[in-house]
Amino acid sequence: MAIDALGASIKRREDPRFITGAGNYIDDIKLPSMAHMAILRSPYAHANIRSVDVTAARAMPGVIHVIVGADVPYNPLPMVWPAGGSAGLRNNVNSPRILATDGVKWTGEGVAAVVAETPAQAFDALAEIVVDYEPLPAVVDAEKAVAAGAPQLHENAPNNVVFEWSVGDKAGTEAAIDTAEVVVRQRLVNQRLIPNPMETRGDIGWYNPGTEEYTLWMSSQTPHIQRLLVGIFTMGIPEHKLRCIAPDVGGAFGTKIFCYADYALVLLASKRIGGRPVKWIEGRRENYQSTIHGRDHITYLEIAGKRDGEITGLRVKTLANLGGRLSTIGPGIPTTLYARVLSGCYKIPNV
Amino acid sequence: MAEHVTLVVNGQRREVDVEPRRLLVEVLREDFGLTGTHVACDTSQCGACTVHMDGQSVKSCTVLAVQADGATVTTIEGLAAGGELHPIQAAFWEKHGLQCGFCTPGMIMSAADLLARVPDPSDQQIRHAIHGNLCRCTGYHNIVAAIREAAVTMHTGSASDSGIVG
Description:
The structure holds 2 protein chains of 2 kinds. By secondary structure, chain A is α+β, with helices and mostly antiparallel strands.
């Protein structure tokens, strides 16, 4: 029967399972013989790693397997959205490895992973891993990061600049500002934020040794894309050998778009332990440290206008903090997703 | 060293051997398979794990399983009697009191605790009652409206209006 939906209050089909506790979120999935993974994360924002000793962790009760960076045969995570345009190909790609090898560039970067019979045993074993760090100076403020004498993160990004990019009508905007009746100048800080969904991230990896196929259950907004990013770009396995399943997702706010190291890690762990499924559920602290953040822009803006209030031009210079390593689409956000919509809903002739 | 714990969950007597450090929410989810009760914040702030213990709402991530020995526990799975939605559940559906659904079970259990004590609460009382439950998608406006609607239904036996199931 056809329903005239316009103007009607439509009840959602998915609600009955959520209001009765019958939803199926990632941590609700329990597979036969499933093992549990925990990730040891760097307490330093910037440090060299001299050594990682997992001998004691391997001997802890319930521990099945321990992985360190040097054991991971995969590529670093893909960065798939360079700024392009006037930045050309000068997007200096320093994306995260599945686990850090010689050094860490942000607080929360993964250093080792433990697979155990229970989550508690995996966490207990993390405490037994000994990492010899050489702490290095860190800088978290974007303006300080590009100032003279700032700690340098990557050799291929001098002065911590990943790329410079511009868009718009430069001459027209300059003329509008030069001839304006009024120019308003402002420094605007759009603070860094943690998207903070109610459900943290999590995934279950299963490698089937019989068919050599992988299945990845993931609290993700982009399971289709991850088949390409995790399968082909990171692990080097073809798409038809990897199935990605997103069950009910308990909020995301964009964080579950991105490609994360744990996706490849649970699949690798499952393969290493003979095809037992491996579950990893992110803690809230981990969510703050290792799932992507947003914003963190420092903007200098100039608005040209007439005395009657009509805006005739807008010039914006923004310093966007892309973090210690590039996320999946990091460079695309402060460029195409931001600069091209700067005028918002206003009709501004020169931007 | 395991401790033996006996409790009644949603009307069923359950027994389990637990490590003393294990939480009530872990036993509900992992040992009894009652995954409607969620863990979200790890810090007892968000209320997604709210259940009733001996008639009072508690955050089950802040109760050790051994503390619940001998208790009667009701979870979101035990709220609907005989397959019929509880009026609070029906009102959350009707009033769009949820989106991703992750906070919803805890929100509903807190609302049930309130309406058992205060049958006709003011909006201020509703907001106070759920101030230990966090929601990130929906915002609280529709949740408050749902709880208000449920209070009316539980008084009169019928909802104020009905929607269309799409």
